[in-house]
């Protein structure tokens, strides 16, 4: 949800479905490009993103406000 507002590539590992058998390599590449500190920071930012926009109550409030304000 909210892909027009959230840059998910900053938070997740995307694996093309045709390359699912290489998922380990994708995860290793993602993990290896981070230092311990930057990996922890990504985790903190992901948790904040979830708490602010993706938690069910926040997401519904935001989405319903957006729908009914148009």
In short:
This protein is an all-alpha fold and 70 residues long. Helix content is 61%, strand content 0%.
Characterization of this structure:
The chain has helices spanning 23-32, 36-54, 56-69. The protein has 70 residues and is mainly alpha-helical. Helix content is 61%, strand content 0%. The radius of gyration is 15 Å and the shape is flat. The longest helix has 19 residues, at 36-54. The two termini are 19 Å apart.
Task: Identify the overall geometry.
Answer: flat
- What is the percentage of strand-forming residues? under 5%
**SS-based class:** mainly alpha
| Chain-averaged pLDDT | 94
- Tell me the number of helical segments per DSSP (H or I, 4 or more residues long): 3
Distance between the termini: 19 Å
Q: Name the helicity range.
A: 55-70%
The parts where pLDDT drops under 50 for at least 5 residues are none
Order of helices and strands: HHH
Give the radius of gyration: 15 Å
Count of strand segments: 0
